[in-house]
Amino acid sequence: MHYFTEHKWIQFAALFAVFFVLVMAIDPATGGNFWRLQETSFWLLPDVVNDGLKFLIDDWWVVETYDAELDLTEESTMMKEFTRGLSGVLLFSINLIRELLLGGVKTVVAFTSWDFISEHEWARIPALPWPAVAAGTFLLGHYLGGRNLAILAGTSTIYIAVFGQWTPAMQTLSFVLVTVPLSVFLGLTLGVIAFKNKTFESILAPLLNVAQSMPHFSYLIPVVVFFGIGDHAGAVSTIIFATPPMIRLTILGLKKVSPEVLEAGMMSGCNPRQLMFRVLIPTARHDILIGVNQVIMQCLAMAVIASFIGAKGLGYDLLVSLNMLKIGQALELGVSIVLIAVVLDKLSLAWANKQVDYFANLPFHLRNKYSLTFLGILIFTSVIAYVASMFFPDKANYLYFIHESQGLTTEKFWDFIVDWIITNTYHSVQSFNFFMTTSILMPMKEAYLSMPVAATLLLVAGTGYIVGGLRSALVVTAFIAFIALTPWWDRALITAYMTTFAVIISVIIGCSVGILCSRSPRATKVILLVCDTLQTFPSFVYLIPVIMLFGVSDLSVLIAVIVYATIPATRYTVEGLSKVPQTLQDAGSMSGVNRTQRLLKIELPLAFPHIMLGINQTVIFSLFMVIIGAFIGTDDLGQLIMLSLSEANGMGQGIVLGLCVAFIGLAVDHLIHTWAEQRKKVLGVA
Amino acid sequence: MSTPPQPVIKCESVYKIFGDNAVKMLEQSGGKIETAALLEAGCVIGVNNASFEVHKGEMLVIMGLSGSGKSTLLRCISRLIDTTAGDIFIDGEDLLAMNAKELINIRRNKMGMVFQSFALQPHKTVLENIAFPLEVKGISTTDSMDRAMEMVNLVELTGRENDFPHQLSGGQQQRVGIARSLAVEPDIWFLDEPFSALDPLIRKEMQDEFLRLQSVLNKTILFVTHDFDEALRLADRIAIMKDGVIVQIDTPANIVLNPATEYVAKFTREVPRERVLSCQNIMEKYDASAKVSDITVSTDAIIETVAEAVLTEQQPVAVTDDEGKIVGVLNSKTIIHVLFGEASSMPVNN
Fold first, then answer.
1. Which CATH superfamily is domain A169-356 in?
2. How many whole angstroms from its chain centre is CA B147?
3. Which residues form the ABC transmembrane type-1 domain (chain A) (predicted)?
């Protein structure tokens, strides 16, 4: 008995034995509630959520509004007025930036009227010539981070213009330039409040947990109901999606500020406001900047997905071209998205690290040399563009604006390559596909679907108990039982099967690559850089090359998921191994270990908790990507979420489905975190 | 006799008690502090009935081992933490009665503090760190930077003003900390184990630097350390703390000669007395009829510096005060006793 309580693997073995007995014993036909939970009133939950939200929108807090134009007093609700106001502000900001870049009349209309526009032809904002914008980004890059950044920013802009993606790219940019600052501001504010107020933090923490494990799509559904469709709705869903990591990293950073730095601030005579804005936030800036970085990435990832609900830009074009299987075009759009992500990321980092020279004492023209240069270039390029349009009135003005149809394109080339790959590898890919599907994926799916719900719950509860005691058992069982109570248990099993498969492969690849790379310091640097870069890519982009090579199937979704989810596994393995304290390494060397022994006996055990956190990330990444994979066509929870987006009463269903996905993630997250914390305590590396 | 000048810092029965029940228990007992009962309730007494005064230009060193409450006491006096009971007066003003605005005001103008871990802001350059208290005060950037540059020169970091803290050594970082604390020209200077995180050699160098600064600036100083030798080197007076209680507060020489408790004696036993005592502490009465040597020594001279001279003389050496008047004599016997004798059998005069 003592042996049993001491050794966890025996407990797990026993648990699995009971699990298999249950699987054998419960017959699908006669198992009843043991096989699958039968329909209960719980199935009405989506409708309840629906009605609740409807009530919020249509009946709660009715107010009278007065429409000046129609001279009418109408009844409306507070919620409608609120969302209308917010939409207006968002739309105005997005349009303002968009029209500064692309030209247009909506901003002018906002202050005047459509009649005014039609009467006065001059009443419009002209588009900036693209060379001016390119020079602007080049100068900004130079100002903030020197030559390399300037070249990166400048050439990216030129690429986008030359390849004829100016319009959608600037649309995306204007979208991002509104959502990023708003998300950062919101996240910072909430983070600061949570830091100052313990009660607020304890309310916020579980909400953040759920928010961060909900798939992207589930944010779209309620937003559509509250805000309708369009750029503003996309912006709202993006902000909701991008804010939680910012809040979390703000709190983390503020908590890490050493108490003596705080005291030094107080002794310098800071008032509370100065203490927060001039001591705490700047000192915590490292974590806060990671937050900003995350926000930029999330916003771009969401900018693509938000195109489902009408956000214009690169994302929308990408969706369309993927839908039409125009792989070459999709690839070019994907590159643009990635370039915008990378440039914004680097610019924001450089901006935060910018130093000030106090004793420069420069004359006016030197102090403002960047703004003056930009002004000069702006005037110069505008004149050139104007003159060009005078001389060639009928031709496309390449110096002013390159339309989508006029841009360079490598589409043909890529399409040719894809064709070539498909014709030449059709048989091998097909047979690989066939082999994987029939011998691995289908049997695995069948196996998952043949698990009785009672056995699954027992397995989950047992794992929870062994890992973290009674409390963990209760927590994870509650998460999974919620899903079992909904009508979508089978769908959840399919999601689980795809995720499991992807996670297993990702972890194997990621950990092996990580271990290999950690053997040499140079490889470590390179692989971390690769991971950093790959992480800036919006998740949707990963679908492009996979569809290009493998066509549309379950397998290609899984491959995209694996590529995406391997990043955290690799990264955490490398980090974990390089974090093993040098003293322990030296102690090992003096005990005379060889390379293999060092890896197996010293490094891996010590790095294991950190690697487990990487696996945790892998699970979450996989879940997200599996859900996004529904876009290509899978039959799991993701597909249902996509469907509820287009259904009239899909809101409740969408939210509950989103919660199901979130709860799978949270259950895994809870188990791994509990376990990793225990291991860290045992190893003394916390 | 004129009225004694007002002390710059005055503490009266200062208590700091940690623990959730502390406030409740104090209310129940009507403000009276019952140490035993508090300890029983699970409270920790950080500072226990501390009373002392620090006068203008004086350096009081609070010395104690970790957990003795020395840093807690310093934070009570700088009001970084709230005092449980007692009174603290800064230049006669009740510190504990000040509202937030007055407190900020006194910190902006009268106080400076140096921290053990330097507490520099990592994202600011040396210059920006030093200018920070000035900027906070609302002084224009140009003036702040000029003043900060003066401070950079004062702590001899010229040429490093645009470096970031992580580019500096520990000693250099603490110079920045010192410069920052002095930027607003405070009257009162708090130093919380400023040299504890430094290597022994650098520590010695920084102590010399600190003494040099103090000789120029002449601030009122509260200096916390766990290093008894450091306390002896720097202090005008030392307060030794144990378990929150100030067990002895006196000049270094008196502490070495008359340790109040066995605990204090443990520190003094190993101290090289010739480095602490001055002629005044051990001189014998001057008998006008007795023969004295040709040379004289000053009352303030440290024994170490005169021992060789006194020992080579045949006659006792006269000790003279500031005006050149002979106030006592030093025998070679006494010197030998200081150098090699037992601590307990010291002939002592104060």
1. MetI-like (1.10.3720.10)
2. 27
3. 169-348, 492-672
